[in-house]
Design brief:
The chain has helices at 19-29, 49-53, 55-58, 76-80, 83-86, 106-114, 141-147, 160-171, 197-206, 208-221, 226-232, 236-243; strands at residues 9-14, 39-45, 65-70, 91-96, 123-125, 137-140, 174-176. It is of the alpha/beta class.
């Protein structure tokens, strides 16, 4: 298949225990999806009785909205990665139940941006959530093939979007789009699942060589001139210093 603007998008929307907020997020986002082949997949847990019981309220009967109900995963990465097997696509966009996407045609904008990756390998980012990572991240299917997942499967909270941003920076394969999200609800009094913070910080730092190896694997696969790859192979140093 020739890489280009014929790509399709699967949006994985993770949720748990907030059906009213989920419904509001879906209702505000759907009018801004313009491609008929874009799928918005709600990722719910089978023990999330509150969300499942109110499905008729937050699932609007739009054929583009799909629902995935599985046993609750131990960490966030596998939950987001459900779409890889349930709704495979050329591009995978990550979404949360507390952040409606407000830019009309954002899915087409992501497709157009991804077409700039001639070899189909890359990451498309929305606005920055903070100094460490974006509030919205999209990866190509070929990126997933090389890295092995959309998000690392280790972490119960945080860190997965930071790791992806690190890998994108190390490989020089990131594009930023001025896509607007409503992120006011992304600031709860306490992060869900937040625990043992110092331990997980140390664990993330200890994974530095694993992330470097993944970045080098991506660089090797890029359709880039040899001198360009030689330059990219050095980019891990400032990225690692910044993350630490």
């Amino acid at each position: 298949k020739t890489w280009g603007r014929a790509m399709n998008v699967t949006i994985g929307l993770a949720t748990r225990g907030r059906p009213m907020q989920l419904g509001e997020t879906i209702r505000r986002t759907l009018p801004n999806i313009v491609r008929p082949d874009t799928k918005l997949v709600v990722l719910a847990d089978e023990d999330d009785i509150q969300t499942i019981a109110s499905e008729d309220e937050w699932c609007p009967g739009d054929a583009r909205v799909k629902v995935s109900i599985r046993p609750r995963e131990d960490t966030n990465g596998p939950k987001h990665d459900r779409v890889l097997t349930e709704y495979p696509a050329d591009l995978y966009l990550t979404m949360h139940d507390c952040a409606p996407i407000l830019t009309h045609g954002f899915d087409q904008a992501v497709v157009d941006a991804a077409a700039l990756f001639g070899d189909g390998i890359g990451v498309i980012n929305g606005p920055m959530a903070n100094a460490s990572f974006p509030a919205m991240q999209t990866v190509t299917a070929k990126w997933v093939e090389l890295v092995g997942y959309r998000y690392a499967h280790d972490y119960p909270y945080w860190f997965i979007d930071h790791e992806l941003d690190d890998l994108a920076r190390m490989t020089g394969r990131q594009i930023y789009l001025p896509i607007q999200l409503s992120i006011a609800q992304m600031r709860p009094t306490k992060t869900i699942r937040l625990r043992d913070l110092r331990w997980w910080m140390d664990y993330f730092d200890a994974g530095v060589y694993r992330r470097r190896a993944k970045a080098q694997k991506v660089i090797e696969a890029l359709d880039e001139p040899g001198h360009r790859k030689d330059m990219l192979r050095t980019w891990h140093m400032p990225v690692e210093a910044r993350s630490f």
